[in-house]
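Incident log, structure service

09:12 report received: a user says their structure output differs between two submissions of the same chain.
09:20 pulled the input from the user's history:
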Amino acid sequence: MTSTSLLNSREQIALLVNEFYKKVRKNEHLGPIFNSVINDWPAHLNHLTDFWDTSLLRAKSYHGNPIEKHQEVDTAVNHSIEMEHFGIWLQLWFDTIDHYFHGEIAQLAKNRARNMSTFIFLKIFEARKSSSDQKTSS
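09:34 re-ran on a clean worker, output below:
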């Protein structure tokens, strides 16, 4: 078994984000979605490192609206994002965390990702319904 570390620095979060998204980009279900909408992977990975640094270590380095961004991505891929995609995303996230890290913050990263994935999918679904309702009322 590989030795794991505590997840407690921005550098470790960057490692987690980079290794995780290597898996995402290669995944047969997630790769086509992510690779079709992300044009500058280094900038995106830095932005996601900011997000997780803020979420896990309270760094206050992230500025953005993840709900809105995911709704835009869903629109860009013709509303093809399903809960299964979030399940795959979560499994890859958990596997990456377990491979490199242990401890309280590693568990927090799993819990936050689980909660966030459910919430974001619900917001995507609401946006689809709202869009559909607007089209039928026009």
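09:41 both user submissions now match this output. Likely a transient worker issue. Closing.
09:42 reviewer note: The CA atoms of residues 45 and 126 lie 27 Å apart. The first strand starts at residue 5 and ends at 6.
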